[in-house]
Amino acid sequence: MTVNFMAGHGPVGAGELVQHSSRQNAGLVGLPAFLDNAKTFGITTLTRDDYWLALTLGGGEVPLIEMAGVYQVFANAGKRMPPVAIRHVTNVQGKVICQFTPPGQDSKGVNPCQPSPDTGKQVITPQHAYLITSILSDKRARCPAFGCPNSLELSVQPVAAKTGTTNDYKDNWTLGYTPDLVVASGWATRTTLR
Questions:
Q1: Are 184 and 88 in the same domain?
Q2: Mean pLDDT over residues 39-64, rounded?
Q3: Which of 5, 15, 103, 117 is most buried, most CB within 10 Å of its CB?
Q4: DSSP 103-147
Q5: Considering its fold, how many domains does the chain have in total?
Q6: Which helix (H) or strand (E) element contains residue 189?
Q7: Whole domain around residue 99: which residue ranges?
Q8: Alpha-carbon distance 74 to 174, whole Å?
Q9: Cis link prior to 187 (omega < 30° from 0)?
Q10: What angle do CA 173, 174, 180 make, to 5 degrees?
């Protein structure tokens, strides 16, 4: 168990730090290594040169589709596949106009809706992906923040999930996954009426 301290909670494990979005050690990674890892996981939008260490604490904007691509690496045992935004398009008669066909499967003559991704690249070991998934699917670790049971659980199978907010707590997002599906949901925006 990695021991760390969260204000008011005493020693906690690494999994609890992730579940509770504790960022006490985020700066230890270093910005160049952080950006290199982000690119490996498919983040292409962090291109400014003025982020500094605040980036490791959420100080940069990343589109939800890229974040879904990051979390699918964990769902896919460490293999990165570019996210697919359109699964298929049909006309009013129900005929499939275009569809996504996973690499190695027969498209049955239907055109792709977008360029087909490659067969994937292993960016982390399956063991590391399993550890992250185990941490993000720990129901007990979510209890202090969301209560037990909570809306991040499914009765049929474990769900790995992570929530986040912007620095000003205005926008919220949730990313969740099972081995078969990644769901990205956001932004629930809180507005202040004047």
A1: no
A2: 83
A3: 15
A4: TTS--TTPPPSSPPP-S-EE-S-HHHHHHHHHHHT-HHHHHHHH-
A5: 2
A6: strand 181-189
A7: 83-117
A8: 15
A9: yes
A10: 145
Indicate whether this model's pTM tops 0.85: no
Of 185, 158, 182, nearest to 174 (Cα)?
185
Average pLDDT over residues 158-166: 83
Q: What is the CATH number of the domain that holds 134?
A: 3.40.710.10
Using left for φ > 0, alpha for ψ between -120 and 50, and beta otherwise, residue 47 falls in alpha
Q: Which helix (H) or strand (E) holds 171?
A: strand 171-178
In the predicted structure, residue 6 carries a pLDDT above the cut 50: no
pLDDT band at 107 (very low <50, low <70, confident <90, very high): confident
Rounded-to-integer distance, Cα 14 and Cα 132, Å: 10
Within this chain, do residues 44 and 27 fall inside the same structural domain, yes or no? Answer: yes
Same domain, 30 and 100: no
> In terms of domains, do 97 and 182 share one?
no
